[in-house]
Amino acid sequence: MDKLNYEVLEKSGYEGYIQKKAPVKMLQFGEGNFLRAFVDYFFDISNEKADWNGKVAIVQPIAQGLSDIINEQEGLYTLYLRGSEKGEKVDRKRVISVVDRCYNPFKEWEIIKEIAKSEDLEYVSSNTTEAGIVYDAASTPDQVPPVSFPAKLAVLLHERFLAGGKGLVVLSCELIDNNGKELQKIILRHAEEWGWGKDFCKWINEDCLFCSTLVDRIVPGRIRDAEEVKQLEEKNGYQDALLDVGEVFGVWYIEGPEWLSAKLPFKKAGVNVHVVPDVTPYKKRKVRILNGAHTGFVLGAYLSGQNIVRDCMHNDTIRGFMNKMLFEEIIPVLPLDKNDCEEFASAVTDRFNNPFVNHELMSISLNSTSKWKARNMPSFLEYIEKYSKLPQALTMSLAAYIAFYSNGIKERTEDGLICVRPAGNDYKIQDDAWVLDFYYENRNTGDAELVKKVLANEKMWDRNLNDIEGLTDTVTADLKLIREQGAEAAYKSIL
Fold it and tell me: Nearest 5°: phi and psi at 174?
């Protein structure tokens, strides 16, 4: 069977939107599954719906990458967006044609520099992982290419500046706080150390726009079932080595001034991308609602016998517990529009009910101590401050966390803590060593005393939670209920 390219696609009878020719308007650092299912998808839709008339040139970030495969397929790849919307199973296919080609900077650095100077270029996008936006003193402007991503971008922007080019909009998608601002700081540091002068720094600060962004789409990437891949190839009429899979839900918040909303093609294209003055509240919404929901219910759900997230959404008690936590305890203390938050929370059930993704509860359980502190503790404390009472679901969630970390402790291994599930099978908790040591050392401590010790552990919570009126007794009673009647019955008791 032929590999995907424009000629093969035409012969296959594909009737969807395709744009073969357009000027390169975006330089993208990274060719991984996420960028292709998210950033490139939104710009591809913009070609169809908003006449953006642009292509993306990709820079392969490491020596061994996908440039040969991408170029062999002429930038084309098949994207499946799969999941659940309003309870209905969704499986959408689209061939993405926004990518022009992919360049290997270790072989084609001079070509990339010429692209950076192009009058057509308007945007830079990146997802170089959390480790990508870091200052690297070993990077120098004469390296071919410079070692770090910020150093590479600094050199390319300097080339553009020297050529008299207009400023660019930089869209950083790395999962760190203030990603755009941090990238800008590093580039300015390089510029100062490399002696590029005040005029270039002024151009970076005044002519270029470094946008911090918040991305939200789960991208599993590949289809692991070889038989399903074979069936899709037969149905499509071509082989696709770049086939990509993402969830249906996707939202992108871009921090920037009002004029950026008019410049970007997304509003006209009608896609779920928003220019906002500050992404911080939207990050808080995602962490508190989406991530907080996961951390809030999965530990008790696992003890009750569940194994994957989707099955939890089919359990009335667990889903009801999650919704009580979200709609009655978390959303009321968020500093955002209530309707907007409720709409986002309603989509959570669909996302967790994705029929194509088997998201294991044990994978979510990793490092639950720091996760509960970061995702659930702020809502917990703010609820108490606002209403002068304990939030029932979040308090039960804290008891479920203690139950999960202490249920029939058997062994402290090199990388985990072996506990026993109520059903009788072992499970391994993975967390910071000091957390695992704490629970192992208290394996014979009675529950009432254990609760006091956990709540008093300031290394865990940055404060002694026993000081909160009624919390110690309530968590102790909740833990007793989980131990004696099971976590599902405990969850049901507060509904």
Answer: -65, 150
